[in-house]
């Protein structure tokens, strides 16, 4: 797994959200959360598992909406940040954060209504095995995102300390077939790489976001999109 040791550093966990979701990164945070909610629909009283939950951005959001959420991550410091966030939000009783390996999920088959993984598959060295595990423990739905090959993300990758795994649509289709998942819907976004938004003030980021949305809405939109969201079902 790319960056496994890096993500477990105490200082990385403490600074993670401040570096990624302040300034223009707030637009990314809002878009990702909306993508999750659009895909899995009403979550009240549903059992949801988040793989690689990190500091609990999505687990807390889902718990606030009444879901029974389990978040799993390999980083103890990240999970501690998530527990503190859950306490501040008053949703600790609705969620459980645990340390574990996404390649060997410690749950029986069909344990959850929905299983999600955000910002995970770009780090996966064996994506097929991870997706297969997600499908195994889901009785209904699997949702995840990928960073796309042949887009601005390819250029941005050069600037990253550990790079990212990038996917073509064909590769994702092959992964879904091997996991026995049915594609319900896919959505594509962000012609400009995430790193650009993080480096500029929120007000300026809004201007770029308007242009970005226009580009994505064009006939070439899917080809330009650096991020894809994949909504799948268990047959």
UniProtKB/TrEMBL annotation:
Regions that span the bilayer: none
Keyword Membrane: no
Molecular function terms from GO: S-adenosylmethionine-dependent methyltransferase activity
SUPFAM superfamilies assigned to the protein according to its UniProt record, in alphabetical order: S-adenosyl-L-methionine-dependent methyltransferases
Keyword terms: Methyltransferase, Transferase
Superkingdom of source: Archaea
Pfam assignment, any one: Methyltransf_11
Statement: the UniProt record of this protein carries the keyword Calcium: no
All residue ranges annotated as the Methyltransferase type domain in the record: 49-140
InterPro entries membership: Methyltransf_11, SAM-dependent_MTases_sf
A Gene Ontology BP annotation from the UniProt entry: methylation
PANTHER family linked: METHYLTRANSFERASE
Protein name in UniProt: Class I SAM-dependent methyltransferase
Species, as recorded: Halorientalis pallida
């Amino acid at each position: 797994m790319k960056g496994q040791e890096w993500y477990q550093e105490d200082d990385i966990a403490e600074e993670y959200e401040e570096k990624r979701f302040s300034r223009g990164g707030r637009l990314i945070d809002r878009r990702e959360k909306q993508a999750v909610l659009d895909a899995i629909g009403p979550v009240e009283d549903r059992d949801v598992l988040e793989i690689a939950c990190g500091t609990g951005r999505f687990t807390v959001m889902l718990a606030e909406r009444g879901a029974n959420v389990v978040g799993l991550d390999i980083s103890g410091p990240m999970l501690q940040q998530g527990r503190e966030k859950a306490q501040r939000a008053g949703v600790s009783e609705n969620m459980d954060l645990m340390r574990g390996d996404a390649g060997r999920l410690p749950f029986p088959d069909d344990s959850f209504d929905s299983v999600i993984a955000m910002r995970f598959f770009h780090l996966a060295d064996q994506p097929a095995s991870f997706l297969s595990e997600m499908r195994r423990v889901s009785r209904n739905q699997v949702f995840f995102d990928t960073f796309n090959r042949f887009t601005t993300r390819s250029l941005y990758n050069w600037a990253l300390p550990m790079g990212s795994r990038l996917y073509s649509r064909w590769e994702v289709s092959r992964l879904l077939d091997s996991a026995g998942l049915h594609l319900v819907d896919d959505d594509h976004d962000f012609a400009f790489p995430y790193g650009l938004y993080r480096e500029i003030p929120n007000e300026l980021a809004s201007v770029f976001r308007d242009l970005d949305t226009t580009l994505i809405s064009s006939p070439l939109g899917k080809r330009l999109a650096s991020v894809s969201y994949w909504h799948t079902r268990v047959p």
